[in-house]
């Protein structure tokens, strides 16, 4: 059974932007699933809905079998201990006036830990993420960017979550330090069976870390499948272009015309047809579904081989 | 400014920049030939941006600068501020990371591009200037230049705004473009377009490019000469193809080893332990990378290594450089 199951969620903001359009995805226990896409694709809005920081207009988010729309108050809090956010920026992730130990302790108090047990737990968590517990009394500005991001992970881990939601959690880090955090996330999955929903614009990082990947474009999932499969044999023209645009990779470059369209004024039909090098007339009229249904590797393209009825 | 044929376009000699106790750039020397490309590769705090901005004489507030920078033989530090303002824009075009910092949100795109031409007297006639603005916007790949010229910055996407800034940078056909992380704020598909644009402009205009980036992929993509900086110093330099496939300096090797790459699925990445030292704590009498370096020996903490030849056109500042052709991360 899925640990997290997102079913057909949509969200339109007050300014008319349909940020998330009928998105479904699932994360099994111990699985690392990536959501990848460029700015405005709806990946962060999807994360906010999953974390119940934003109500979807339609659709359901279930965590461990509970429909999050029905859970409130104390029950929501105890459920939240099991899915925790690792935020983007290490600089804003932590309160600059709180020592890193106090930041972790605060999260434990919110989730009802007794004061007596907190100090040991704080040290245990710092140790888990490779930070010497003696650094617990330091302030965030006294630590490096990589250390602060690991503290943010320690804070998220403290409540014993089954799922970490990482929203661009390594994007702001220098590459030499980013590797430390990626190694840590891989180890947490391996040794503690923690599931991770990993949201990123960086395809190389997503391919490295994730079991499965969903590629989003203008609010919709256009392709999903095993990370290795998508990296080696991308099917959707957008995924192909995205992979070919990674600088320094030896793929032949597919240069897309223009910019992603304004999400407030998304094109009819397939949202990608205005930039797609392979678009035909039909693409402007009909929006393709993710096919084949229930297959491990699916894509939403009218011209894809998988779109041919079998 | 004119100079003999063999004079480099840009010559930085023993540049040092300090901000109070912080020593941001330490004894950096580099040269760039007319029409050539040098990529300065480094992580945050390496001094790469301060080096590039020093060429514009805009290193940042309260900076104290030593050394010499010559553009086509002309000593930039000897110019008065008025002459330097002419150099910026006319001889050197600048493309910053954030296009918003170079664009006035309250004025139309066309007016702002036109102003660059006007300030430097590049095109005197007003009507000709307007036509040149449209040409420049078309040159950087902006669809419908006439309409874009009438737009305000907020009406354009980030990628389009960066193109406008590039159009402003090349407006007076400068001999040098300095670009400081010009694609970092852009989406990857747009980044690819902008990198292609730099290459095209160089080919068509013969402009030299000094590009600062943290992205090994960008350096490899431009296939230029690369200068790797760490803690304010150049630790390695040479042709990108050689440096990024067979690095001589352990830091360069570490940067490459830390990159996720195909075939290593969720395997242990060779992360460099710790973090770079703060610019206030780097000492001159030691290799700044030694505390994080797997190859370091006691001598590394007692001597600051000089840049020494390690191959054709290559140099590394390391007492124990990695032998050529050794595998990355080995």
Automatic annotation (TrEMBL), chain A:
Gene3D superfamilies attached to this UniProt entry: P-loop containing nucleotide triphosphate hydrolases
Annotated ABC transporter domain residues: 4-243
Gene Ontology BP, a term: peptide transport
Organism: Pseudonocardia thermophila
Highest taxon of source: Bacteria
The protein's name: Peptide/nickel transport system ATP-binding protein/oligopeptide transport system ATP-binding protein
Similarity section: Belongs to the ABC transporter superfamily.
NCBIfam families named among the record's database cross-references: oligo_HPY (TIGR01727)
UniProt xrefs under PANTHER family: D,D-DIPEPTIDE TRANSPORT ATP-BINDING PROTEIN DDPF-RELATED, TRANSPORT ATP-BINDING PROTEIN
GO terms of molecular function: ATP binding; ATP hydrolysis activity
Pfam families: ABC_tran, oligo_HPY
Keyword vocabulary terms for this entry: ATP-binding, Nucleotide-binding, Transport
Database matches in SMART domains: AAA
InterPro entries: AAA+_ATPase, ABC_transp_ATP-bind, ABC_transporter-like_ATP-bd, Oligopep_ABC_C, P-loop_NTPase
Lineage: Bacteria, Bacillati, Actinomycetota, Actinomycetes, Pseudonocardiales
UniProtKB/TrEMBL annotation, chain B:
Subcellular compartments: Cell membrane
InterPro entries named among the record's database cross-references: AAA+_ATPase (IPR003593), ABC_Ni/Peptide_Import (IPR050388), ABC_transporter-like_ATP-bd (IPR003439), ABC_transporter-like_CS (IPR017871), Oligopep_ABC_C (IPR013563), P-loop_NTPase (IPR027417)
Swiss-Prot/TrEMBL GO biological process terms: peptide transport
SUPFAM superfamilies noted in UniProt: P-loop containing nucleoside triphosphate hydrolases
GO molecular function: ATP binding; ATP hydrolysis activity
Membrane topology term: Peripheral membrane protein
Keyword line: ATP-binding, Cell membrane, Membrane, Nucleotide-binding, Transport
Single GO cellular component term: plasma membrane
Keyword check for Chaperone: no
Transcription regulation found in the keyword field: no
Start and end residues of each ABC transporter domain: 10-256
Family note: Belongs to the ABC transporter superfamily.
Protein name, per record: Peptide/nickel transport system ATP-binding protein/oligopeptide transport system ATP-binding protein
Organism of derivation: Pseudonocardia thermophila
